[in-house]
Amino acid sequence: MATLEECRGALDTLSGNLAAADGDVRGAAALDRSLSCHIRDLDVTFTGRLSDGRILVLDTLQGPPRSRAEIRLAMTGDDLVALVGGELDFPKAWASGRVRLEAGFRDLLRLKSLLR
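Predicted structure:
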């Protein structure tokens, strides 16, 4: 089972990957939205913002998200680490329910290039 530190590191790596991206991925990550990532097996939620192509983690809370972020993710810590490490395919994980992504319809359309 991934640790809290490994999950935070995975989010930092994802943030760096988004910041270094170009083309469609860079455009999709250019949103300015509140973000939450609930790690189900650790029962911890990272909250922050997707802004200027980076994920800014502002807080780590025990339990599920306390407020409804504009972009909401939920998964296990192992799945987060595997996704960021390229060992888990996001579309398949999302389709099977291993990863949950919730956002407004327009945001989902913009984020689709990140999901390939």
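Summary: The mean pLDDT is 90.
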